Amino acid sequence: MFFKNRCHITAVLVAGVLGISMVTGLTACGSSDGTKVVFTTGFGKNEVFRIGDESCSKAEIMIYLTTTQNQYENVYGTEIWNTSLNGVTLEDNVKETVLARIAQIKTMYLLAKRERGHVG
Q1: Angle at 102 between CA 94 and CA 19, to 5 degrees
Q2: Which of 36, 58, 74, 78 has a CA positioned 20 to 30 A from the CA of residue 26?
Q3: β-sheet bridge partners, residue 88
Q4: 113 — alpha (psi -120 to 50), left (phi > 0) or beta?
């Protein structure tokens, strides 16, 4: 149900990464410390997005999405997916929220790794 439109998901991620890039102080395609943001269509078969050297797989996204879907259905029932507001379905809203959350987690991990000087 959630993984119908990879192009839409990619567009949301691009917007999220741009927002995260602005927050972390990146300018244009790089920052003063050499950090670069690169957008590419050369993802692996099951790769949804990549931030730096961190990748997010389709399986990882599906775990988050399925968990969120189950939480909503346990509280509100399966009919909740028929809900929309101003032309935006709950399904689309949840997808965007989950993708933004995962992108934020990956970015925070990379920042923490950089600050601590650890590799891996």
Answers
A1: 90
A2: 58
A3: 85
A4: alpha
Closest CA to 35 of 120, 117, 110: 110
pTM for this prediction:
0.59
What count of other Cβ atoms lies within 10 Å of the Cβ of residue 96?
Answer: 18
Bridge partners of 47, per DSSP, are: 57
- For every one of its 120 residues, what pLDDT tens digit does the chain have, with 9 covering 90 and above? 544 444 444 444 444 544 444 444 443 444 556 666 555 566 677 888 888 878 888 999 999 999 999 999 999 999 999 999 999 999 999 999 999 999 999 999 888 988 887 555
Burial 75-85 (b: 16+ CB within 10 A, else e): eeeeeebeeee
